[in-house]
Amino acid sequence: MMKNIVLIVLMFAFAKAYSQKIEGIATYQTQRSVDIKMDSTSGMTSEMQKSIQEQLRKQFQKEFDLTFNAKEKVWKENESISTPQAPASGIQIMMTGNSDELYQNIHDQKYVQQSDMMGKLFLIEDTLEKPEWKLEKETKNIGQYTCFKATLTEEITESTLTSGDAQAEEVKKERVTTAWYTLDIPVRHGPDRFWGLPGLILEVNDGKMAMMCTKVVLNPSEEITIEAPTKGKKVTQDAYDEISEKKAQEMMERYQSKSSKKGETSSFTIKVGG
């Protein structure tokens, strides 16, 4: 009985979405946990490590806009105009403006992602895979919206590159993502790669990255335009992942070569995925 009621509510919500024009812009803030580990021979004091970790944490505090209508969305970072101050440790980390952009079309079941890898643009074109969300009973309010909880369990592969090792170590892990969506905005979009719930996703947390909606503007006075990015070398997702792994390996080999010439023995770890 309860299942039938839920289905009726969802059918009503989507009927409402398609019977009227729904488009808008949702703004999100993101945070990512950062953990820096270096051995005692690296020559880096604990104060310097803490400084780097804090700078990285702040660099990952970004703001994105999700522009959407009933069928399409574009996810793009807002450009930051702030200039970070040099820390007391003397080490400063600065990230250039992000040119990455994600377009999804849930009607045509496809996505196009423009991604910058070490100064080279790629255009990833592939098929959308529907996520297997589990709808939960919990609710909470985010701003003026009543939100429902959903979870997504995925098996991911984490590649770890450690200086001194010839090959990356791959470990399969289970990742549980928690999302909160609202039926008040009956579109199946969400921040970043997330989608597929019966309402706009306002909050996502996968254990490392958290994304929280801070503002929603529905049906703005000026009509919005949603277009897929077009710049970059066209590749599939699998091809891009392979190129990314090779670039990470090349970076590690260059570091090892320089360290061996200088007689250095310090080590560090790069983690990809997860």
TrEMBL record:
Residues 252-274 are annotated as: Disordered. Pfam families: Porph_ging (PF09697). InterPro entries: GLPGLI. Residues 265-274 have a biased composition (Polar residues). Residues 252-264 have a biased composition (Basic and acidic residues). This is GLPGLI family protein. The lineage of its organism: Bacteria, Pseudomonadati, Bacteroidota, Flavobacteriia, Flavobacteriales.
